[in-house]
Amino acid sequence: MSINRLKGGLIDHDAPLNFSFDGKKYEGRAGDTLASALLANGVRLMGRSFKYHRPRGVLSAGSEEPNALVELRTSARKEPNTRATGVELFDGLEAKSQNRVGSLAFDALGVNDLFQRFFAAGFYYKTFMWPAPFWEKVYEPMIRYAAGLGSISFQDDPDLYDKGFLHCDLLIVGAGPAGLAAALTAGRAGARVILAEEDYCLGGRLNAERQPLEDISGPEWVAKTQAELASMDNVRIMARTTIFGAFDHGVYGAVERAADHLGVPAADKPREVLWRIYSKKTLLCSGAIERPIAFEKNDRPGVMLAGAVRAYANRWAATAAEDVVVFTNNDDGHKTAGDLRAKGVNVPAVIDVRQGVSVAGETEILTGATIVDTKGRLGVKSVTVRLADGKTREIPCGAVAVSGGWNPNVGLTCHQNGRPAWNETIQAFGPGERLPVGQSVAGAANGDMSTHAALTGGAQGAVEALEALGISAKPAEVPAAEDAPVSITPYWHVAGAKRAWVDFQNDITVKDVKLAHQEGYRSVELLKRYTTMGMATDQGKTANVTGLAIMAELTGKPIPETGTTLFRPPYTPVAMGALAGRSVGKEFHPTRLTPSHKWAEEQGAAFVEVGNWMRAQYFPRKGETHWRQSVDREVLATRGSVGVCDVTTLGKIDVQGADAATFLNKIYANAFAKLPVGKVRYGLMLREDGIAYDDGTAARLAEDHFVVTTTTANAVLVYRNMEFARQCLYPELDVQLISTTEAWAQYAVAGPNARKLLQKIVDPAFDISNEAFPFMGCGEITVCGGLRARLFRISFSGELAYEIAVPTRYGDALMRRLMAEGKEFDVTPYGTEALGVMRIEKGHAAGAELNGTTTALNLGLGRMVSKKKDCIGNVLSEREGMAAPDGLALVGLRPLSSATIPAGSHLMAATGPIDAKHDQGYVTSAAYSPVLKTGIGLGFLKDGSNRMGETLRAVNPLEGGEVKVEVVSAHFVDPEGGRVRD
Amino acid sequence: MLIPHPLLGLRDAAEFTYLGDAALIERPEGDIENAQDVFHNYLFLRDNPAGEHRELWFHEQGDRSWLVVTRNTVTHEIIKAELARDVAIQKGRST
Amino acid sequence: MTDLTAIPPLGGTQPLVEKIGDIGIVEVIDRALASIAVRAGQDAALSELMASKFEIGLPEAGQCLETKPSRIWWMGPGQWMMDGDHDSREDLAAELKAALGDVASVTEQTDGWCRFDVSGSDLSEMFARLCGLDFAALKSGAATRTLLHHQGCFVILSELGASVLGPRSSAGSLHHALVAAAKSVA
User: Fold this and answer.
1) pLDDT tens figures, A850-863
2) Contacts of A625 (CB under 8 A, 6+ apart)
3) For residues A44, A47, A50 and A56, what is the CA-based torsion angle, rounded to 10 degrees?
4) Which of A237, A886, C37, C137 is deepest in the core (most CB within 10 A)?
5) What is residue A148's predicted lDDT score, i.e. its pLDDT?
6) pLDDT (0 to 100) of residue B95
């Protein structure tokens, strides 16, 4: 039997659930949280503190919890730092305490507590300064081991997470009395409403209080209201959903814990959903968070917030102990005493710091009294009270219910730089003037602390929010409810305490605040950073106001003048899995497959990721044990007979219009206006600053029709820039653009037998002889019995070559046909590696050379840049430094030994120092040339064009090593370029 | 952020690519005097206002329109959004 | 006719058909596509030709018109996409170009795209897990391009459900995203 289980509440006493904590088995009830179930089982000790490893128990009953953080679940599903107060109990739940060495009851690092004076604020900064190398190797690992929170599993998360998008007129954050009244109002008016509640039950404090709403209980009114809301198609009720951030323009972030209350989510269903909510208006009904009073050793398990003690009793039928002392500075504390007694819990004393307070029915009230000490190693056993007359009295108890007043929960009002404002009546910060666009606040979050005020404020808030949208609404009629004014005397900490905690999660005491003050860190922002107060995962929800109030007291300034720090998203921690959503593993990004992918897979190709594309890298054959063997074979076979390569990934942009040629003249550095129909030209694109950024070809299919190709990597960027030029720079031109990259399967067919192979598939009506279809020719043809195709006689390999394009759906069949028809020529498919080798053998620039720092002049293409026309990049390409005659020039490099040249090496003189000052240039691309049977390289060398034959060193200081190289022409193979014209 | 597309209404900023100052529309002609200086100013010298800023956004995952968005860089309020092509024509970049 | 065999974007021998709960996801391969972009100053002429030759109008931004046997939807200012039956009008672009002449630029788009038709009693929950469109507020005839699984995709609503057109090369990824979303809400 659970020793601290009470009667009643909103749990199902007939539905037992088994769970374990630190390996020990317990029984809870459906409707319990892990925290309430532990309390009901007499477990007060739930964790160890961050710095001092002090025993800690649960403080609160909500998401503000700083202490009761556990590791939930096991193995790959282990989730550290989970607040026990938010964990909905399920059968078979396993949880462990964290931040301990040894058992929870005897934590070996509890010894830290004995050295507490060393762990005060600023301790690390002052202490671990010397010797400097010790920080990384010794101090930091040691501190990280001792401090910190839970541990992760280091295994892949087996569960799914979704992302989603929702739209609404009114987002209501929080389904307490204000939120429910607002939802009723807006729902009845027909507005699209989202009602988000972090708890698994709607109702908020209504579930935790005993006062009726007119003639029914709070939970009964909640159930009735929920039923009506659920019947409305225009209202979306989202329980277990935390609105964690308020972003620009009414966008809110939300996490729905769709399956966190189950041991394992159902198949194919997400554990959590990360929602982006587009709201026209938002009503924040997030309630209030109680704050503790700092007193001597107020961190012992059993010292809890009074409102939480009341909630555990009323909603969860659980109490932390049989004897509970109340410590308060306001009337709300007395409510807890009354409710506990009604549940049969003994309240030996209500200690009220206020003088001369009397409360109806309260007999054990000690006014003008404070708690000056507590006892009990693993949980409070007694409190020592200093009475109004100065005498002390020790009162045995198992729990202390503390109320220092309630802070409106203004976290989401701050996310767009809003600053909370001090509210004198309730002695707390409420929402400031500047709220996120479209947001308003109602209920306790707005400082309206009574249930009546929350109900009416919520209804009225909804009316006003909808009015701004042109939706007229009538405030929902609300039941008569408790409407007591807030009666509070500010009281932050008990003077003279040696160790009184302010921020439980980061282990910050009153003394730390005093130390910060003493050392001059007096602004709240500095106080926060010096002490780390409010910087734990709870963002100081129960700590910040107390901390800054103490600072105000020390500086002698009023609290509003002292100010407060801001809350930032996320309101509560968000799981990494939810942020990643479905974009994990091989779905991290879309995978683009080429038309010949399936065929290439059948050939056993090795693939390489190029952007999102999967490209065949090489095609290993039986007996080949090293990629170089395959690549060398593919190069030699292509240069010797014929090879085929899938080049579909190159960007293709269709350019049409009466002014298409004029347009291309603007975007290419070289001239296109006079390109005849049926011809292709190589083109170089510059950025406006004169740097070369992409190259490709433009084929003129008609007077008013070009097909532009781009590099694979820059396809998106070039299209974007071309649209910029079309829409923003030259809107007068008649030109239209559209990408056709995916529409056409395109294959390079290269080698001396390329034409012979193509003649076997090109329909006889089309003459592709050298005379009829010369180098740089292009045309629309048909293949394989009438299939429309495009043929371009262009060559990247330096061989007689074509690129042939057919509609993508036929790409697979065309590749198979080319292989079948090419058997007699021993046709060889080649991948990106062989493609790369052959282009280096030809000295063709690629991404490594068009690297964002090089100009046309550097690339040896200076003469291409037309001086006769205005094109993008033309003017600035002639800037003094970029046009220097002795600047970097593209050269070929040949090792003087059998070594290969590491790409990325820097070029230094044959002798002399190796340093940046003597840098002559660098190697951009390198390969082994199976044709020349030697390593070769391309690189940029100062004044390179005039240095043929010179010997240099290619040095690689990063990996070590240097290679002697000779500067040669970049055209290693067929330098005259005769083959492409054969 | 949400961008009020002049043709399509509010669209998530995730659909857009940002470029920068809308002054980039006003590209000088290449054959003018002091072209180097003028282009240097055009390309590299930018105002960085704390307040209203006219900037270029490309609806890359949408209708492929370039927009001129007037945005307050302090509050992120978007005051208006226009088709950049219309702006360019108004600025005389048209015959 | 060519003797080359076409394959569907997902690479099977037949278009893939999935049923998840009451949500159907069908790979559609029987549509030819061509883009139509109006030439400078030819807006009225293009409208007239489209009406007279194809009995179809030019839809406004965000809209799709369906006049059997074709759909036409707005892609961007001055640009539309039209489809037609693939078997009988495979070279739709050539057909359109012949009809429209210098009034418009026409570009073949048939294999630039993969298309999945999604049907079911309530698709708004499924699409809420896929893209930022206010799907529930969209009506039949809405057509818009939006970000869906990191890619710009057209989402077109008809009486029968929604068509999603995405880049053909990543058909597998798009299909996976659609199936995953359907399973999440089914």
Assistant:
1) 999 999 999 999 88
2) none
3) 10
4) C37
5) 63
6) 44
Q: How many CB atoms lie within 10 A of CB A517?
A: 17
The yes-or-no verdict on residue A510 having pLDDT over 80 is: yes
Name every chain A residue with its beta carbon within 8 A of the beta carbon of C133. 165
- Cis before residue A569, ω within 30 degrees of 0? no
Query: Which among A165, A654, A656 has the least Cβ separation from residue C131?
Result: A165
CB-based contact A160 C131, cutoff 8 Å = no
CA distances from C6 to A595, A806, A807, C30, C107 (A): 11, 11, 9, 11, 20
CB A675 within 8 A of CB A861: no
ipTM attached to this prediction? 0.98
Q: In the CATH hierarchy, which fold is given to the domain comprising B2-94?
A: Folate-binding fold (3.30.2270)
Q: How much is the pLDDT for A867? A: 82
Whole-model pTM over 0.90: yes
Q: Which CATH class is domain C17-29+112-185?
A: alpha beta
- The structure tokens listed for A213 are 């709403």
What is d(CA C111, CA C4) in angstroms, rounded to the nearest whole number? 15
When pLDDT is averaged across residues B64-79 and rounded to a whole number, the result is 96
C-alpha angle A336-A337-A338 in degrees, rounded to nearest 5: 90
With CB atoms and an 8 Å threshold, state whether C76 touches B85.
no
Q: Residue ranges of the domains in chain C?
A: 17-29+112-185, 31-110
Q: How confident is the model at residue A149 (pLDDT cuts 50, 70, 90)?
A: confident
Tell me the angle at which helices A524-531 and A544-555 cross, rounded to the nearest 10 degrees: 120
Note the pLDDT tens digit of each residue in A323-339.
Answer: 999 999 999 999 999 99
Q: Tokens representing A139?
A: 């101090």
- Give the span between the Cα atoms of A582 and C180, in whole angstroms: 9
Region C31-110: CATH code: 3.30.70.1520
Contacts of A689 in chain B (CB under 8 A): 43
Say yes or no to pLDDT of A145 above 80: no
Q: Is A864 helix (H, G, I), strand (E, B) or coil?
A: helix
Query: Do A230 and A183 meet the contact criterion of CB atoms below 8 Å apart?
Result: no
Sequence-distant (≥ 6) Cβ neighbours of residue A121 within 8 angstroms = A508, A512, A515, A516, A530, A531, A532
- Hey, CA dihedral for A766, A768, A769, A772, is it positive or negative? positive
For residue B65, the chain C residue with the least C-alpha distance is C76
Q: Does A727 touch chain B (CB under 8 A)?
A: yes
The set of residues, in sequence order, having a beta carbon less than 8 Å from that of A916 and lying 6+ positions away, is: none
Region A884-902: mean pLDDT is 92
What per-residue string of b and e applies to A459-497 under the rule 16 or more CB within 10 Å gives b? bbbbbebbeebebebebbebbebbeeebebeebbbbeeb
Segment (H or E) for C44: helix C43-54
CA distance C137 to C12: 35
CA distance B51 to chain A (A): 16
**Segment holding A512, helix H or strand E:** helix A510-518
Q: Can you read off the two tokens belonging to residue B11? A: 């669209």
Task: Please tell me which of the candidates C61, C62, C146 has its beta carbon nearest to residue B15.
Answer: C146
Which of A889, A859, A857, A846 lies closest to A695, judged by CA?
Answer: A846
Task: Give the pairing type, strands A906-909 and A951-955.
Answer: antiparallel
CB pairs under 8 A between B and C: 39
For residue A632, the Cα-to-chain-centroid distance in whole angstroms is 44
**Interface test with chain B among C144, C154, C164, by most B beta carbons within 10 Å:** C144
Q: Which of B8, B12, B14 lies at the smallest CB-CB distance from C61?
A: B8
Of A723, A731, A879, the CB nearest to B93: A731
3-class SS at B28?
coil
Q: Tell me the pLDDT tens digit for each residue of A121-135.
A: 766 666 666 677 776
